[in-house]
Specification:
D-Maltodextrin-Binding Protein, domain 2, single chain, 10 helices, Iontro_rcpt_C, globular, alpha/beta
Length: 268
């Protein structure tokens, strides 16, 4: 075989290996919309223990702000929605594994989480606060030194309170109900969480009160699998349509008893 033929064979091998092979093996970006339509329902991961975002209402029926928004997303796709219970530790693994198509579970959009999943635009902006039993000597994060503070494990709440009150003794729980029970039973001196969630506990339990100022900003996003831009686009369009029509504002007032403090991001 002469040198010219050897060069031709070598170049051909490089073209096949370097150009054609990636075109064959390159993984396609996920697109769950067609799968959702084929299945005939949207599988939505929500919390069942976090009022007013997601909880079990009358007759143990799942209800809440997050669920109302996901119902609207399902309507835009043209299918009904099935709600699947998730917790803070399980919501991202269940999404990534395909057990649910989407997650709306009072989940703060962070850089760290953005490396694993994709998020919608911010649909709710809240802040972190403290709730204590009436008469407590705790007046805010500055008086938590040596105090037992209940908090959800694996959340931004846990990181925020550790930074804001480094001398507090943090006690982690898997969900809000477990953390709340620890406060009621005296196993914790305070409970920290999103303001609107704590307001829900205070409203139903007059012996407890929210103290101090908000000490974080929590932009909540709806999660989809990384690269699932088709579903993310539908979610974003739904949220913006709801805002433009005024329906978002009505849903917000229904669950939080006030007008939204932060407007949604609206694209032209």
């Amino acid at each position: 075989m002469n040198m010219r033929k050897l060069l031709f064979v070598g170049l051909s091998s490089l073209i096949i290996a370097g150009v054609m092979a990636p075109a064959v093996t390159m993984a396609q970006s996920p697109n769950s919309v067609e799968e959702i339509k084929s299945r005939g329902k949207l599988l939505a991961g929500v919390k069942f223990d976090t009022p007013p975002f997601g909880f079990l209402g009358e007759g143990n029926k799942p209800t809440g702000f997050d669920l109302d928004l996901l119902t609207k997303v399902a309507e835009k796709i043209g299918v009904p929605v099935e709600f699947v219970s998730v917790t803070s530790p399980t919501r991202i693994p269940m999404l990534v594994s395909g057990n649910v198509d989407v997650v709306a579970a009072s989940m703060t959009h962070t850089i760290e989480r953005d490396r694993t999943i994709d998020f919608s635009i911010t649909y709710y902006t809240g802040g972190q606060a403290l709730i204590v039993k009436a008469g407590s000597d705790i007046t805010g994060v500055d008086s938590l030194a040596g105090k037992q503070v209940a908090v959800q494990q694996g959340t931004t709440l846990e990181k925020n309170i550790a930074a804001a009150a480094p001398e507090a003794k943090l006690v982690g729980f898997k969900d809000y109900n477990s953390a709340w029970l620890a406060l009621v039973q005296g196993r914790a001196d305070a409970l920290t969480g999103s303001l609107n969630i704590l307001q829900g506990f205070a409203k139903e339990n007059k012996d407890y009160q929210i103290v101090g100022d908000i000490f974080s900003s929590e932009p909540f996003g709806i999660g989809v699998r990384q690269g699932d831009s088709a579903l993310r686009d539908i979610i974003n369009e739904t949220l913006q349509d709801l805002w433009k029509s005024g329906e978002y504002q009505k849903l917000y007032a229904k669950w939080f008893g006030e007008e939204p403090r932060v407007p949604l991001e609206i694209w032209p």
